[in-house]
Amino acid sequence: MKERLPKSVFKSLIKTIEEGTKLEPETADAVATAMKDWAMEKGATHYAHVFYPLTGSTAEKHDSFLIPTGDGTAMAEFSGSQLIQGEPDGSSFPTGGIRQTFEARGYTIWDVTSPAYILENTNGTTLCIPTAFVSWTGEALDKKTPVLRSMQALNVQAQRILKLFGHEDAALVSSTAGPEQEYFLIDRNFFFSRPDLINAGRTLFGAKPPKGQEFDDHYFGAIPERVLSYMFDVERELFKLGIPVKTRHNEVAPGQYEIAPIFESANIATDHQQLVMLTLRKVAEKYGMACLTHEKPFAGVNGSGKHVNWSLGSKSQGNMLDPGDTPHENAQFLLVCAAVIRAVHKHQGLLRSVVASASNDHRLGANEAPPAIMSIFLGDQLTDVFEQIKTGGANSSLPRGTLTVGVDVLPPLPKDAGDRNRTSPFAFTGNRFEFRAVGSNQSIAGPLVAMNTIVAESLDYCATQLEQATGGDPAKLNEALQKLLTQIMTDHGTIVFNGDGYSDAWHKEAAERGLLNLKTTADALPALKDKSVKDLFTKYNVLSERELDSRLDIYLEQYCMTVQVEANLTLEIARTLIFPAVVRYQNELASTCANLKFLGYDFDMKTLDKITTLVKGLQDSTSKLEEILSKEHESDLEVQAEIIRDTFLPAMMDVRGYADELEGIVADDLWPLPTYQEMLFIR
Which residue from 34, 101, 132, 149 has the highest number of Cβ atoms inside 10 Å of its Cβ? Predict the structure, then answer.
C-alpha cells in the first residue's frame, strides 16, 4: 500500500492502524482505489466483505467491481463507501433474539486494522476485506466487533499503568495471540464412508484398535511423505494470504498434527486463525485426505486443542509480560502479571464458559487436555518471587542455570529457571500466558474477548489503587505497589497451582480452595448471565446486556442442536448400518451351527450366544434413545441443555457400547464402517 498511496494518505492509514485514531473519509476513498487496482492486477473481478457471524465460521458476500454506465457498457469502480460498508442479510444468522426473521438489515464495516487479501481459485481471484458485522440497530452480530472493543478497553487501562511508571508516549497497547492449531488427517475415502464424520465431525462408533498412542511413537515423529507434501502446500497457501507459519509437527495421537503461526495482534490473529482452518480443509482435498478439526474425532486417543498464547505490549514498551532475567526487579512486569492472576481468579467461571461446547466437553478433563477447573501455572521462578512478595518483598530471582549432558561434542545449554506444565489450563510460558483449554474447532475470538476484558478490569483496579495511594507522587509508587501486590496474592493466590492438573487429588484440593469445577457446557454457559459478568462487559463497552444475553441463547442452542444431531446420527447408523451387518453375521453363525449339528459335529455356541445378547442390547438401547428423542423439547434452553447432558449423551453411549463390542466380533468384511485401525494408521 505504501507504493500505491499518496504519502499523506499512507501516513493517515498507518496512524489509524497503529494508534487507533478515526479513519478519515478521503483516506478510505484513496485506499479503495488502490485496493481495486491491486486486486484487478491479480485477476480479481469481485470483492468480498468477509465477516465472522456467531456460528463460529466465516461468511462472505461477493460483489463485482463492474457497474453499468448507462450507455450499455460497464466500468470497474470501487469507492470508499463500498469499502467501508456492505449490506448482507442480517436475519438468517444466529442473533439470540436481537433480530427477528423479518428484520433483515445488517451491515458489514471495514476493519482497517486487519489486512485485505486475495483469495485464489482455479477460475479466478477475489479481493477479500475483513469486516465487522452489526445489526441495523447497532448490536454486534459477530465475533470480531467484541474483540476490537475489548482491545480498545485493554489499551485504555494499560495506558494508565504505563503512565504510573513514567511512560507518557501513549503508544497503542495491543494484545497479541498465537494459536497452536491441532488437527487430524484421514484418507478421504474413509471420511465419506463415515456418516458420523460427515455430519458431526466425530466418530460416534469405533472400537479401540489393537494399537493406539501408547508407544508415544507418533509425537514429533518423522512426518509421513503424503502429509508433509500437504503441509508444504498449506504453508504456501497461507503465505500468499499473509499468514507466515512458524511450526509444524506430528502430535501425540496417530494421524494428529499441529500448525502454529507467528504471533500477531489479537484481532489479526483471530481473522487469520479462521483462514488457517479453511485452508487446512481445502488443501486436504487435493491430497485425497480430510482434515478434522473437531476436538474429539476419535475416542480413546488424544483429542485436539487450540492453545492460545496471549500477551500484551506496544511498539515502545515491547512485551509487557517479559519478566527479564531478574523478574523481582521488574516492577511493571510484576504488576501486569499480578493483574492477570487476579483476573483469572475473579472471572474463572467466565473463562470456563468461553471454551464450552458440546465437542470440547469430550476433551476437557481427559489426560490430553487441562481439567475444567481454571488455574494458573507460574513456574518455580515466578512462584518464588510472588511468595517473597507476600512475606514482605522480593529480593531475588531463581537464576537460570546451565545444562550439561556429559557429552563433549554437545555444547552446554542455557537452562530455564523453571519447568513447564502441560496439565495447566492457563500457564505462564516465559513471556506470555497460554490458554490451553480452547477447543481446536473454536474461533479464538471468544477466549480473546474474555482475556482482554478481564485483564482490562484488573488493570483498571490496579491503576485506581495506585493512583489513590500515590496521589501523583512517583516517590510513593514502590511502597504502594508492594502493598497492592501483597494484597492481590493474598486474595487471589489460590488460583496458582503448579502441580499435576490431571490428578484426582487436584480436583479435591481445588474444591477445598473454592475453585469452580464446571464439568460440562450445561454447567459452564450459565456463568454468562452472572451479574458480575454483565457488569464487566457493560462497564467496558465490550458487550451490552442484550448482546451478552443473545450469546448465551445462541451457545445453549448450538449445544442442544449439536447433541441432537449426534443422537439422530447414532440412531440412524445403528439401525441402518450396524444392525443389518450384525444380523447377517448372526445368521451366518446360526446357519453354520445348524449345518454342523445336522452333520453330527459339535459346535461352540459361545460366539453366537454373545452376539445374540449384544444384538438384543443394541436393539433395546436404540429403542430407548428413540424414545428420548421423541419427547417434546423444553422451551427453556438451560433446562433443555441439562436434559440433553443427562439423558441424550448417556443413551448414545449405551448404543455405542454394544456396537463397539460387536465390532470386535463381527467378520471384518461385513462391518459397514471404516475402523479406527484403518482411519488412524493408513496415511
Answer: 132
Query: Cα(261)–Cα(248) distance, rounded to whole angstroms?
Result: 9
Nearest to 105 by CA among 137, 65, 130: 137
Flag whether pLDDT at 149 surpasses 90. yes
pLDDT interval class at 66 (50, 70, 90):
confident
Give residue-wise pLDDT tens across range 234-243: 999 999 999 9
Whole-angstrom distance, CA of residue 182 vs CA of residue 304 = 5
Sign of the CA dihedral 341, 343, 346, 348?
negative
Give the number of other Cβ atoms within 10 Å of residue 2's Cβ: 9
E-assigned strand segments in 215-265: 245-250, 256-261, 264-265
What span, in angstroms and rounded, lies between the C-alpha atoms of 560 and 76?
Answer: 47
**Segment 190-207, tens digit of pLDDT:** 999 999 999 999 999 999
CA terminus-to-terminus distance, the chain:
43
In whole angstroms, what is the distance from residue 93 CA to residue 78 CA? 27
Q: Which amino acid is at 621?
A: S
Q: Are 345 and 495 in contact (CB under 8 A)?
A: yes
* Exposure string over 547-583, b if 16+ CB within 10 A, otherwise e: bbbbbbbbbbebbbebbbebbebbbebbbebbbebbe
Closest CA to 327 of 416, 414, 436: 416
CB-CB contact of 336 with 312 (8 Å): yes
Strands (E), 495-537: none
Instruction: Give just the sign of the alpha carbon dihedral 29, 33, 36, 42.
Output: negative
pLDDT at residue 367, rounded to an integer: 62
Per DSSP, the residues of 552-588 read HHHHHHHHHHHHHHHHHHHHHHIIIIIHHHHHHHHHH
Pairing of the two strands 124-135 and 44-51: parallel
Out of 258-267, 344-353, 366-375, pick the least confident: 366-375
pTM (whole model) above 0.90: yes
Q: How far apart are CA 208 and CA 211, in angstroms?
A: 8
In order of 114, 185, 243, 293, the CA distances from 236 in angstroms are 20, 18, 9, 20
> Strands 376-377 and 401-403, how do they pair?
unpaired
Amino acid residing at 438: V
